[in-house]
Design brief:
Layout lengths: L1 H18 L26 E5 L5 E5 L11 E2 L1 H10 L2 E5 L3 H6 L1 E2 L3 E2 L17 E5 L6 H12 L5 E4 L2 H7 L4 E2 L5
Parallel strand pairs: 3-8, 4-6, 4-7, 7-8
Antiparallel strand pairs: 1-2, 5-9
Length: about 180
């Protein structure tokens, strides 16, 4: 019975989290999402953007989703960075959702804790933030925040962890105690 409530809570948190826009309080947080926030990001126009790792990364140049200043990265290109160990994946979900399942090796920094845990984000590495939103709402907000804080190699994962999992890429769960 407790598991049932936990699953329902996780689903509700996901639904609420994907639709939320961060509260603006000066330059310390990302601005509210634009009117296109609920539309999927357009990823059909691409350009090669050099990554810090020296490889090329395909990022959407025509981004209709929230925070157009944050480039999107496809699952295929993110997997190349994953395999090469050239990127850090940031899971923006709640701890409960992260513990349930996340991209293997990802670090968990929920969106609402990003400012207080920014020291966990390594400078000088490629950062790939992800959420569960088809329009990358939360991950793009995190990317925008990091760009404002001086990080330069930041991306939002197109399709988030759902697209990653659907592609059959490595996922993991927190080990039970």
């Amino acid at each position: 019975m407790k598991l049932r409530y936990l699953v329902l809570f996780a689903i509700a948190a996901l639904a609420i989290g994907c639709g939320q826009s961060p509260a603006g309080n000066g330059n310390n947080s990302a601005p509210a999402a634009n009117a296109n926030a609920n539309k999927p990001a357009v990823n059909n126009t691409t350009a090669q953007t050099p990554a810090a790792s020296g490889s090329n990364t395909t990022a959407a140049t025509e981004n209709k989703g929230p925070y157009p200043d944050v480039p999107r990265i496809t699952v295929a290109d993110a997997k190349k960075d994953f395999d090469a160990g050239t990127a850090v994946f940031i899971d923006t979900h709640s701890k409960v959702m992260f513990d349930n399942e996340h991209i293997k090796g990802a670090i968990n920094i929920p969106f609402n804790e990003m400012e207080s845990h920014i020291d966990l984000v390594p400078k000088g590495k490629k950062i790939i933030a992800y959420c569960s939103c088809p329009a990358e709402n939360t991950s793009a907000a995190v990317g925008h925040f990091l760009l404002e804080k001086g990080f330069s190699n930041v991306y939002a994962l197109v399709g988030g962890n759902n697209a990653w999992k659907t592609a059959g890429h490595p996922m993991e769960k927190k080990a039970a105690k």
